[in-house]
Amino acid sequence: MARSLSDIILKGIVRFPSTHSWRTTVTSGSCYWQNFSTSVTGDLDTHEDFQPTNKLAGSGLSTLDVVERDVKENPIMIYMKGVPDAPRCGFSALAVRVLKEYGVPLSARNILEDPELKNGVKSFSNWPTFPQIFIKGEFIGGSDIILNMHQTGELKEKLEDVTGETNQEKAG
Predict the structure, then answer these.
(1) Beta carbons of 32 and 25 less than 8 angstroms apart
(2) What is the per-residue pLDDT across 78-111, written as a single tens digit (0 to 9) for each?
């Protein structure tokens, strides 16, 4: 009875439609399943809501132009995984937490939403990891560098003249 019940369950799993391949190994009466994903980002069966998007596609600007503009127009620009209010990795969370200690305005872009932007930022800074922090147009580095600068007092000096005003507010 137990053997036939496990055979029924196993046959049901094998027939289960999915985007995954299942390999079943039976040894000494025990059954082990191994899952191998076969889904691809450009998979036509994947709903469009779950595919990466390129929000810059219709802007007429190249990715490098957008990054250059971001860095130039924003006193503090951070390219990170997630957003400042909801970071998606510990390093991004650390960088945001350190910068928020100074009460300065942060501008950020979520590199997880756009793979092309992620690659463009890497090319622009010639730095492979994230987060990437720019202060007053200068590439500073990642969370480890910001933390070190905070601990030595160098970050306080760097941020002294950064206010909540944007370039448009200053001109108007």
Answers:
(1) yes
(2) 999 999 999 999 999 999 999 999 999 999 999 9
For strands 132-135 and 138-141, give the pairing: antiparallel
Q: How many CA atoms lie within 13 A of 146 on its CB side?
A: 28
Quick one: which of 41, 65, 37, 62 has its CA closest to 53? 41
Using CA atoms, how far apart are residues 162 and 11, in angstroms rounded to an integer? 65
Mean pLDDT lowest among 30-44, 45-59, 96-110, 132-146 = 30-44
**Cα gap 138→98, rounded to integer Å:** 18
CA distance 65 to 83: 21
